[in-house]
Amino acid sequence: MPKKRILPFIILGIINNHPQITGREITAEFDTEIGDFWRASHSQVYPELKRMVNDGWIYDATSKDNAKERYYTLTDEGREILNKWLGQLVTDLPVHEDLFSLKLFFIKDKHDKRIPQLIARQLVLLKKDLKYLMQRRQTVFPNEKTIQNNYGHYLILARAISRTQGQIQWLKDTQKLLKEEQ
């Protein structure tokens, strides 16, 4: 079954949040907040922008300073499509590509020496990720006003922090259990 195309809706959301945004700036959004839960490359974004212009979802205008640089803005149709998509309920669980879990899944013996190594490495990665998420929360949401102006974004960041804290706690509990069973 083909994968549902989500990228056009993400791009619509980015443009809605940042009217008059360039393709380069749209691509850069995937290196910051959105990149924490969705990835897209330059080679995916630009063809999608062209399709969206042709479909009438967005329009583009060239920069006065640089004829190669284009600024994108939502059309009324694009805004309507975005609002309709935002109103649709999510019916599928997210697809996870978790290499740690996949490797752990295939280890049969609870005394396998790779288990503590996998867990220790995963703890390092998750602690680093948690530190990053906490710093992002401080930077992006320094006060109640910024939270209220971007509440959905705040909720996603809070969820990521909670999920990461839960994973760290599970790994620590599992480490403790493994030590007790030795």
Structural key phrases:
182 residues, mainly alpha, Arc Repressor Mutant, subunit A
Structural class: mainly alpha
Helix content: 55-70%
Strand content: 5-15%
How large is the count of helical segments? 8
Q: In sequence order, what are the helices and strands, one letter per element?
A: HEHHEEHHHHH
Computed Rg: 21 Å
Mean pLDDT level: 90
Show the helix and strand layout.
Elements lengths: L6 H11 L3 E2 H7 L12 H14 L2 E5 L7 E5 L1 H12 L11 H7 L8 H27 L3 H6 L1 H30 L2
Antiparallel strand pairs: 1-3, 2-3
Quick overview:
This protein has eight helices and three strands.
Any overview of this molecule?
Residues 100-179 form the Transcription regulator PadR C-terminal domain. The chain is mainly alpha-helical. It has 2 domains: 7-87, Winged helix-like DNA-binding domain superfamily/Winged helix DNA-binding domain (Arc Repressor Mutant, subunit A, Orthogonal Bundle); 99-180. It has helices at residues 7-17, 23-29, 42-55, 76-87, 99-105, 114-140, 144-149, 151-180, and strands at residues 21-22, 58-62, 70-74. The chain has a 3-stranded antiparallel β-sheet with strand order 1-3-2. Strand 2 (58-62) and strand 3 form a beta hairpin. The longest helix has 30 residues, at 151-180. The chain is elongated.
